[in-house]
Write the structure tokens for this entry.
Amino acid sequence: MTDTLTASPRPATEGAAPSRTRRVATTMTGNWVFLALVILIVFFSVKAGGTFFDLGNFRNVLFNASGTMLLAVGTAFLIIGGQLDLSIGSVLVFSEVVGAKVIIAVSGPAAKSYPDATLGIALGIVVSIGLGAAWGVLNGVLVTRVKIPSFIITLGSLGMALGLAQVITKGTDVTGMPPKMITSIGIARFLSLPVPVWIAAAVAVVAGLVLAKTRFGRYTYAIGSNAEAARRSGIKVARHIVILFTMMGALAGLAGVLDVARYTTTQVSGHSSDNLVAIAAVIIGGASLFGGRGTIFGTAVGVLIPAVLNNGLVIINVQPFWQTVAIGAILILAVAMDNIKRSQQTRAS
Amino acid sequence: MLSAKSISKQFGHVTALSEVSLDIAPGEVLALMGDNGAGKSTLVKILSGVLTPDRGELRVQGRQVHFGSPSDARAEGIETVYQDLALADDLSAPANLFLGREHHRRGLLGRLGVLDVKRMQREAEEHIKSLGARVPDYKASVRMFSGGQRQSVAIARASIWARELIIMDEPTAALGLVQTEQVAQLIKRTRERGIAVIVISHSVPFVFDVADRIVVLRLGATVATLSPSEATHDDIVAAITGASVTDAGATTEDAR
């Protein structure tokens, strides 16, 4: 974190309307990242032709991005509200592990081809989302009551949730899910798109509208901008922050459901970098790590860039590990561009 | 309108205020002056509900009130412009004016929490213009505004909601000459609307310009009440420092 990222009030100078420039520039930054996504798609389409530019392949890209999208939406709300949640991957694992155990226990024996699979799956989903939300409440209450930065609190709950998941499973993944879990959620399709994609898209659209149009969204920006000012304006800041963490936890639980539905097994060791992936997506999408700025649209673009890169690189036979390198570079570039634009405006004003 | 009687406040062994009384009439501008540590900020925090006094009573329109929080004071029509302005930097001027008191859309959308952005924008614009203040862009975030423009937004926010009194804690501390003049204009327009203003300031010329009455605090007590039309610069300095007794009809009593 360089100090150039600092969101402290800039020394403002009296003068002509700087704000229009700023607004245009903000849109430009959003568009710049969007442009990068378009360029990537065009590049891979030209390079790999029909193998990449194909409905089936796009379906794959979206399918792979759906879990990350859920996590990134929750992370966007938190970051805009001035908070961070590092525990999301662990909370996801904990929720899916317990949810999977519930599904197996309730669905009945495999020999009788899971007689109560529907009930088991329904219960498992509720338990998974509920437990995720419960971790969120715990995070939120600790952050607001103990008044320790969320970075530290969630670093602690990261360890606790993952450790408990490992204790429950003794370190091995939960398998033996009823096939219905996959056929009715994991790979089921609706209007030619996989159900997880619809779920992620619905969550993103609703979250985007809530953030942009409602009082809840506005308070999120206000708290991220200046929590003390929000408090003095009569906004219940602590309650709002707890709700943000609870949303995040519930979304992690939902992402856990999708994870199990897709792979028929839990992924205890597969989510250690979910937090950083989600944070990167939100920041690439134009949010400030210090709160107050960001959009769900930008976040969605920030989720899709790595997804497209990963997919495209595999298709054109480049080691997919380059994706990790590229994302790192894009993250730095995105923040740097944003920063340069902002300092230019300050000078212009 | 607002009357504070025998207000005392201790912080541990430190007496921040002892037996301070203050009255302010509708449309009156009262300047609070005094050296650092004189108790101005403590008094203002008590009047705006940030602190509760140990002893003494507050009355609004003759009714006794207890302020447990700034919200309580706001419910009585008392608004505060804090020294740090307390603006949400990433929000627009209208969003800041209506922060915590947003208008919702009518019908189902409103019940779902959807904001009536256009109405708030229109009302904010009308209000800011009626104050004669200048805001360069009603859609841009206030982060990019100059110090004077930000101050205007903070004062506009207080005056759109205040029904009785606006308290300003050093509104000109970080401003240049032109912007200070603008703040003086804002205060005068607020007074014309029958709203009382209590303003903390260290600037004697500014106080002479806007105030109807000057109250000087020293070591937690009221030491002088002066009239700007009669008192001189030296009278004020003398009262603040406790150097000597003044004439000009001022009542000066030593705190200790």
User: Anything to note?
Assistant: The longest strand of chain A covers residues 189-190. Chain A has 13 helices and two strands. The interface with chain B takes residues 7, 9-10, 12-20, 22-23, 210, 213-216, 218, 221-222, 224-226, 228-230, 232-235, 291-293, 345-346, 349 of chain A (CB under 8 Å).
